[in-house]
Each structure stands twice: as C-alpha cells, then as structure tokens.
Amino acid sequence: MRFWRVIEPYIGFLLQGFALTVVACLLAIAGAVLLGALTASMRSSGNGLVRGIANAYGDVFRNVPFLVQLFFFFYGLPELGIYIGALETGIIAMSIAGGAFVSDVILSGILTVDAGVIDAAKVSGLSRFKIFTRIVLPIAMRVSVRPMGSVLINLVLTSSILSTITVNELTGAAKIVAATTFKPFEVYAVLLVLYASLTTLLSFAISAVHHRLNRFMTGG
Amino acid sequence: MRYADFTPYDIILLLQGLGVTLALFVGTTLIGLFLGLLLAIVHHYRIPGCRPVIVVVTEALKNSPVLVQLFLVFFGIPAFLHIRMTPVEAATLTISLNTAAFAFVVFRSGIESIDRDQIEAAKVFGLGRSQILRLVIAPQAAAFAVGPLVGILVNQLQVTSLISVIGVFDLTKIGNILNLRTLQPFIVWAVIGLIYYLAAKALAHAGGRIEAALRKSVKWGGI
User: Fold this and answer.
1) Among A125, B81, B88, B136, which lies 20 to 30 A Cα-Cα from A42?
2) pLDDT tens per residue across span A145-182
3) CA distances in angstroms from A55 to A60, A82, B42, listed in the order given
C-alpha cells in the first residue's frame, strides 16, 4: 500500500511526536481541569469581584483564537524575563484556554444540583467540604461527563497548533516527514485518519465513563 | 524614527487583515451552511448509499485538527493531483467543508426534532414533498438550529486564524508581521486578540437577535 510505504521508514519518528502529543495533552488536561474547577468555584462565589474576574477570564479566553493566545505567550513571556521552552509555553497556553471551557462545564454541572439536596445535607450536619465532595461533586459529575469529554477532545485537536511554535508533536513531526519525503498528501491523509481514530476512541471511553457514573439512573 | 516603531499605516494594515479574515469567514460560512443544509436534506431523504458516506466524512472533519486539514488541502492535494492551489483557495475549501460538517449535524438534529406526526398530518392534507420541506420542516428546524449554529460560527471565526499558517494575509498574519517588526508582542497580540474578541461578541449578539426573531413565530405557550 502506497500510504504505508511512505510512512514506514518514519514510524519511529512519528511515534516520538505522538508521545509528545500525549504528554502535552495529559498535562494540559490536568491543568485545564484544575484551573476550570477553580474558576467554576469562583464563578459560583457570592463575592461580586471574584465572580467578575472569573467571568472575564472565561469570556476572554473563549472568544480569542487559540493561535493568538499561543503567540501572546510564546513571544510575550520572554519579554517579561520568563524564559521557558516552547513545549512548556504550549502546555501553559492549552491549560489556560482549556480551563475557560472546563469552567463552563463544571459550573453548569454544579448548578444542576438541587438546592433542596444541599439543604438536606446541611441539616444532616455535614461540613461544607463534605457536602461539596460527597454530594455536589458526584451529582455534577454525572451530567458533565459528556460535555467535559467534548472539551477534552477539542483540547487534543488543539494540541496540533503547538506545531506552529516549533514543538515537534505529532503534527510537527508529520510536517518534517512531509517535507523530507515530498509526499505531503500521503503523510497528512494518514495523520488526519490517526487524529480522527484517536478522538473517536476517546469519545468511546467517555461514553463508557458516562454509563458507569449513571449506572444507578434507571428510566430517564 | 526607527522602522521598529508603530506607524499610523499599521492601522490600515490591521484593517486589511480584518477585512481578509471577515471576507473569508463570511464566504466560507455561506458555502458551509449551504453545503451542510444540502447534506442534511440528502440524509433526510435516505438516498441509498449516501448516508454512511456523509456520516463518515463529516465525522472525520469534525474529529481531526483543522490545521491538519489545511495542510492536507494546501500541500497534499496539489502534490497528489498536480494542480496549483493558492493559499486563499485552500483556506476557502477547507474552512467551508469544516463548517459544513458542523452545520450538517445541527441541521440534521433540527430536522429530526420535528415530530413524524406533523409530517404525516401534512401528507394527509395533500402537501407535496417540497411543500412539506419548505412550509413544515424548514421554519421549525431553523428556529431550532440558530442557537447551536451561532455557537459554531463564533468558533469558526476563531478557526480562521489558522489560515495564517498557510500564508493567507489575515488578521493573525498581520499580527505576525507587526510582531516581527516592532518586537512588542504584548501590545501586538493584545490588540489582535481584542479585535477578534469584539468580532466574536458582535457575531454572538447578532445571532441572539436572529434567534429571538425566529423563535417569536414558534413560541411555546406552555401547557
């Protein structure tokens, strides 16, 4: 097969790129979820200033293209005297952009929890921390698995943009292979199918988690 | 004056970039929405063999990075078919298809949101296929679809920034040029970001008004 013949000598190189994509995505997902959870709790806060700051962050980073955000950090941070590598910059930018979307998902999950449930927990004498971790979070998780999944899949697709700031993750590695082999069609077609299969597998996994968390919900 | 300073001409440069971005966005949106609608209608009428092809292609477009799609079209297709393609052509083709894939899903669920009974009733009243599509399905599907479509279009506006990578002189590319010349990344990228932000907000606002107008006619009175 012609596609395999083109790709075969560079499999090791592409796998290195893939490993970098996986590392970047895992770290960025962790960062985005942490930042998103923090922002969501700020957005549900009673303090107007805290709420305003968190809302502004979410609003700005959802309405500015990721490429522009990435260039802002990549070219801007050294001007502040912060010298970090391109990969680190990329992971930070992905975390910040992802956090804005994750906070939306978590916030709407928290808002689905019935106020009566929280009152009942308070009356039962549970501490605020216990109410949040044992009551609110499990209920919120059930409804937010799917939307959270699509945000994370988007983050994986976004990671390809790191190739524009010299990170040789999967797309960056494929660019080099395409340039060396002079066979861009074959290389990018394979790359497209690879990303599509990766994200499809991810969405199956998300469905499985969704069913697992909702296994006590019968009927509908 | 050093060449590195900002000049009044930079404003014209920014406006040019914004013009290219908006023109490409409007063009690809129109093509994409039309194509997406066409796919949804073909899908609705169950033309043999079409359904799996449409679903696989749109899923592939939705589940792969736009940057890779751009590279495939701009570098891959000319090399494969031995044709010439300008960056603008490649960008228009890619973003249009991408928008079409997302729009298809929205239109499909819009059409599917309509009760079978309504279509049965319309048939009983003697309406033809195209009449049912125009008078029964289209108005309701449109009201259903506008909200999600606006979300998609705000997203696609941001996606257009990627075409700067294949050499289209859009707003982001102008940002690159100003950044390299002035070496003041904070100001340059903040201004570029602000312009995109305002454009996205304006788009969302316009979409909200259209949605309100469409929903007026199919307002749910409550039980």
Assistant:
1) A125
2) 899 999 999 999 999 999 999 999 999 999 999 999 99
3) 9, 27, 42
Torsion of CA B86, B40, B49, B94, to 10 degrees: 10
Per-residue pLDDT tens digits for B40-78: 999 988 888 889 999 999 999 999 999 999 999 999 999
Are A191 and B65 contacting, i.e. CB atoms less than 8 angstroms apart?
no
CATH 2.60.40.10 assigned to B9-217:
no
User: DSSP alpha helices (H): ranges in A80-114?
Assistant: 86-111
Nearest residue, CB atoms, A76 vs list B160, B189, B197: B189
Name the pLDDT band for A219 (thresholds 50, 70, 90): low
Kindly indicate the confidence band of residue B219, based on its pLDDT and cuts at 50, 70 and 90.
Answer: low
Place of tokens 């499985």: A208
Residues of chain B with C-beta less than 8 angstroms from the C-beta of A161: 65, 67, 162
For chain B, the domains span: 9-217
- Dihedral (CA of A95, A97, A100, A104) sign: negative
Nearest CA in chain B to A159: B65
Are A177 and A11 in contact, with CB atoms under 8 Å apart? Answer: no
Rounded to whole angstroms, how far apart are CA atoms B57 and B166?
Answer: 23
Tell me the HSE value of A52 on the side-chain side, using a 13 A CA sphere: 3
For chain A, the domains span 28-213
B8: contact with A, CB 8 A cutoff: no
Q: Which residues of A touch B192 (CB under 8 A)?
A: 68
Mean pLDDT of chain A: 92
Q: Which of B63, B67, B185 sits opposite A72 (nearest CB)?
A: B185
- Is residue B64 within 8 A of residue A192, CB to CB? The reply is yes
- Residues B6-20 have a mean pLDDT of 93
Question: What residues in B contact A159, CB-CB < 8 Å?
Answer: 65
